Amino acid sequence: MDSRTALERLDAVRPGSDDLALPEMAGVSDLLASDVGLAAEHRRRQSWERSVAVSMHDVPVPPGLKERLLAKLADSATVVEVAPTPRRHTRRRALGMLSGLAASVVAAGVYWFVVSNTVDPVTVAELKDAAAALASGEVQPEAFKGDFAPVLPSSGNWWRLRARPPVVGLLPSDNGHRAAAWQFSFVGRAGRLQGVLVAIPAESVASPPAGKFAYAGGNAVAWTEGDFVYVCRVEGSIHELLRQLDEAPLA
Question: Is residue 66 part of a domain?
Answer without folding.
Answer: no
